[in-house]
Amino acid sequence: MVADAELLGEIARREFAALGVAGRLVHARDAAHVRSLMRTEDVVVVVPAPGPDARTLLRQPPGSGVVVPVDIDRVPGARHIHGRGLAGLAWAIRHAVHRARHPQVRRIPYGPSPEQWGDLYLPPAPQAGAAVPDADPAETPRATEGRAETPGAAGERAEVPGTGRHAEVPSAAGGRAEVPGAAGVPGRVPVVALVHGGYWRSEWAADLMEALCADLAARGFAVWNLEYRRPDLHGWAATRQDVTAGLAALHAIGPATPTGPTLAARRAQPGNGPDASDRAEPRNGPDAADPAELRNGPGAADRAELRNGPDAPDRAEPRNGPDTPDRAEPQPPSVAPGLAVPEAPSLDLDRIVVAGHSAGAQLALRAVADGARVALAVSLAGVLDLEQTDRRWLSHGAMAAALTGGEAPAPALDHGSLDEGELLASSPLLRLPLGVPQIVVQGRGDDVNLVDFSRRYVAAARQAGDEVAYLELPGDHQDVITPGTPIWQATAAAITRVVTAVT
């Protein structure tokens, strides 16, 4: 691949340290070398997975560990991490460690497309009134690394809709919020459905929200991390239909015994040898990789491999890539003799929270406006005014590109490029009132256009009669989805307070 080798090492080592794992960067000699490493290592990130030999390995990995491919370049049609440049290596390492540490996650398709699925996280047995645990540093993306934290967040307060109370922003130094747990009806847990952003482009996927999934599950929530077809590949209608269908799918999910046997237990079972796998390969269409994407010739690959530290749990047999659906229903779990399988709680469908980040907030709020059944809607640095998103040409015309399903046309001099009917239907600002309580979260260090959108949306929503809390605190675009930051701690506290007030 075309990249400075030392820089790749710096990226990998920074992630290893941040996630608390031991790892190393290996420049594989050929496909046989990759196969050998994949057979013996428990967690492997392969970049850029070039050539037909390497792609075949990813279709049928020889071992039973976690295998995550990542393409630094954009690979049209890929269903793994790709197109994020060298930063994609960091995201892939985070995703690989997350999968290794959370093998119990249940992937459930809600449609026939490989991009129509949600990952369901179930919390540990909730305890009412328990303090929220410290954020796991292993689940914290390094969005704030390399710069000083913004002081002054501690002690700020913000109103929480539907409770008559205010939430206090926790201390940045403490990183802990003393708020009620999410427990409510015994045996039933509230649900937070997460809708990722990425300005409606397919390079960005549900792995962006995995850190929040772990954080929210530790707080006592079930979490539904929703993937959907992006408009650059499937059109705008498919995207909005998927978000609606994905939220509706929660009502069809019953209680399920947590999956995720230990890696050792799975390896001991018959049928789990080198050729047994329920993994599906993330492909670049039916013909694997385009040779033009390759850099080091057939069989060559740069790869980072990880080993879990002493506190990391064993791993279940992996699913290959962040966007590849598991089987519709998981197989019964395998556990070591003498260990009881805990009974999973059922989902409390009267306490569903939908939270969208960036463009995902637009999709989430539109679904609510279209009638999705939720108790609370949350915008995290949301793109809430589509007319101005288009007129101001944000993210190089992302709005126009999403609506046209391809490259954005040149901006008009006297008007935007949005269809007036679709603008009215899709822009959260133009769909008010939503009729449900809302929390709008905005970092002051974010794009000033998004700060403008959030402030004007809150004013318009309140004027329309909606109950809205506004949290504008220090932080940037990624801080609002980064566990441990003051702005996320305040957001999680506010969500928890609203949910515990719902009876």
Structure report:
The chain has 503 residues and is an alpha/beta fold. The protein has two domains: 5-111 and 262-307, no CATH class; 118-258 and 343-501, Rossmann fold. It has 14 helices and 15 strands. The strands form three sheets. The protein has an eight-stranded mixed sheet with strand order 5-6-10-9-12-13-14-15, with helices on both faces. The chain has a five-stranded mixed sheet with strand order 1-11-2-3-4, sandwiched between helices. A two-stranded antiparallel ribbon has the order 7-8. The longest helix is centred in the C-terminal third of the chain and has 17 residues, at 448-464. The chain is globular. It starts with a helix and ends with a helix. The relative contact order is 0.18. Mean pLDDT is 75; it is low at 126-180, 256-342 and 408-415.
Q: Give the distance, in angstroms, between the N- and C-terminal Cα atoms.
A: 56 Å
Question: Strand tally, please?
Answer: 15
**How much strand?**
15-25%
Assembly context of the chains: single chain
Give the biggest sheet: 8 strands, mixed
CATH architecture of the largest domain: 3-Layer(aba) Sandwich
Listing every helix as H and every strand as E from the N terminus to the C terminus, the arrangement reads HEHEHEEHEEEEEHEHHHEEHEHHHEHEH
Averaged pLDDT, please?
75
Q: What would you call the structural class? A: alpha/beta
Looking at the structure, the CATH topology of the largest domain is Rossmann fold
Domain unit count? 2
CATH class of the largest domain: Alpha Beta
Radius of gyration (Å): 22 Å
Morphology: globular
Q: What's the CATH H-level superfamily name of the largest domain?
A: Alpha/Beta hydrolase fold, catalytic domain
The percent of residues in helical segments reads: 25-40%
Q: Give unreliable regions as ranges.
A: 126-180, 256-342, 408-415
**Arrangement of strands in the largest sheet:** 5-6-10-9-12-13-14-15
How many helical elements?
Answer: 14
